[in-house]
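Query structure, 486 tokens:
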């Protein structure tokens, strides 16, 4: 059986550009899928960091005018990742965050920028390069949502298509007046096309026209079919339930491995946890927490937003401090939340510390040095931070939503007795229940043999891409077995 050729298209890919979990996923998927006979080449924008990482590349196509300026399509490989890079300086030659300008607001031309990415992906599917013919094009998140729509309105033979929702809250809505500028026909603007609540919906278009829809956990796939978490798209998702499924994310076990991690102070394993204590000492020193290796240390590495429940954590801080614990926060997000985090750290020196921003090395050290990892999200499509925490024996304390519910086994007496407890879950998602979960975790921590049993069970849990890659391979094969696209 010959390999299946998949063109993935996304707005970021680790290690070249990353703002969150999407970048990690795009960087981690291709290797495990290759073992399943799936050959992935990923199309990404030519941000400065991507072009620098790619080096020269090979110019395989030139556009005289791609949405307002000349562009090149480059091909090359970086650290085992096969890439197409869309080098369009008028769209992507901007330093800093890929989506947000220096004033903290979205780039006003984001719809045009990511329409160009989706248009090139669709054109590759229609034979732009005679030597490259993908069997499947797999779009990721709203930035690539127009790709299935372009193929639909182009007509004629096309590859099969998949779109993955990494977070339904981000939908890529833009004014209807941009229809022509986006290269969409007049007749596409209707409820069965790209129209969405009086505008053009990038993600809505992808969900409308893709052959298959996936999201990043089974529980989230169920949640988004209802009005509470469907974000205005639940009706469409219910109508397309027969093509919607949830496939859990995995993590790159080479990058996130406490046995070999070069970014932490001391390595450790399930057999020998001593290094984790040394990492706690280093984390305390790095962030200015009191040097107390026996004190329970809760960590959180997250976007500092309402979705992630940071307001609930700050409301529950007295319960955490009453347990004698420390708290380390690493992340960035809403300005108001960032200010609140800085304020509580200043109010509780030595007990609460924060680093506002993102630092990859510090994120690794936080997982290694924390006793427990907090993830009190109001909703969570999958979540990667709790998967890293499991790998590093930072016992996750999580809300029972989405991928958090699917990946963490609550430390009930029965689960502890069966040696399958890997964390603490709480529900409903409010400050009272979060406080109760923190108290449960602190009580378990004081029972050292039980706590270390939970840590070791967490570290043994399979959070790799092995099972997800098989699921994606099955999905692609099923699509191709159904015959040509409609």
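Result returned for the query:
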């Amino acid at each position: 059986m010959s390999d299946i050729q998949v063109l993935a298209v996304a707005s970021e890919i680790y290690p070249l550009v990353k703002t969150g979990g999407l970048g990690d996923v795009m960087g981690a998927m291709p290797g495990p899928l290759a073992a399943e006979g799936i050959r992935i080449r990923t199309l990404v924008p030519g941000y400065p960091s991507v072009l620098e990482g790619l080096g020269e590349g090979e110019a395989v196509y030139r556009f005289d005018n791609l949405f307002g300026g000349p562009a090149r399509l480059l091909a090359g490989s970086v650290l085992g990742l096969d890439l197409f890079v869309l080098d369009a300086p008028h769209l992507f030659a901007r330093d800093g965050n890929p989506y947000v300008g220096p004033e903290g607001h979205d780039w006003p031309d984001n719809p045009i920028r990511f329409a160009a990415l989706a248009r090139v992906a669709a054109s590759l599917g229609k034979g732009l390069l005679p030597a490259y013919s993908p069997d499947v094009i797999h779009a990721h998140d709203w930035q690539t949502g127009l790709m299935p729509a372009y193929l639909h309105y182009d007509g004629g033979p096309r590859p099969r298509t998949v779109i993955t929702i990494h977070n339904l809250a981000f939908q890529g809505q833009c004014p209807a007046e941009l229809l022509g500028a986006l290269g969409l026909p007049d007749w596409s603007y209707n409820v069965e096309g790209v129209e969405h609540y009086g505008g053009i919906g990038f993600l809505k278009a992808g969900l409308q026209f893709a052959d298959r829809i996936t999201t990043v956990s089974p529980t989230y796939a169920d949640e988004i079919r209802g009005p509470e978490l469907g974000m205005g798209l639940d009706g469409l998702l219910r109508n397309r339930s027969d093509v919607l499924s949830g496939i859990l994310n995995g993590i790159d076990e080479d990058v996130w491995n406490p046995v070999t991690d070069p970014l932490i102070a001391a390595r450790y394993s399930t057999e020998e946890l001593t290094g984790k204590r040394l990492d706690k000492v280093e984390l305390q020193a790095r962030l200015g927490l009191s040097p107390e290796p026996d004190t329970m240390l809760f960590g959180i590495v997250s976007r500092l937003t309402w979705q992630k429940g940071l307001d609930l954590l700050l409301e529950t801080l007295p319960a955490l401090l009453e347990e004698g614990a420390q708290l380390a926060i690493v992340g960035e997000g809403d300005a108001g939340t960032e200010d609140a985090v800085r304020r509580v750290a200043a109010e509780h020196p030595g007990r609460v510390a924060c680093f506002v921003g993102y630092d990859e090395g510090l994120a690794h050290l936080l997982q290694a040095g924390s006793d427990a990892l907090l993830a009190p999200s109001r909703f969570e499509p999958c979540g990667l931070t709790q998967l890293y925490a499991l790998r590093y024996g930072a016992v996750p304390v999580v809300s029972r939503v989405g991928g958090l519910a699917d990946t963490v086994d609550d430390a009930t007496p029965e689960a502890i007795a069966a040696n399958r407890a890997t964390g603490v879950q709480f529900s409903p998602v409010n400050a009272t229940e979060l406080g109760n979960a923190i108290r449960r975790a602190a009580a378990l921590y004081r029972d050292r043999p039980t706590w270390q049993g939970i840590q070791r069970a967490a570290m043994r849990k399979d959070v790799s891409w092995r099972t997800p890659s098989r699921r994606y391979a099955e999905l692609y094969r099923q699509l191709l077995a159904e015959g040509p696209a409609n």
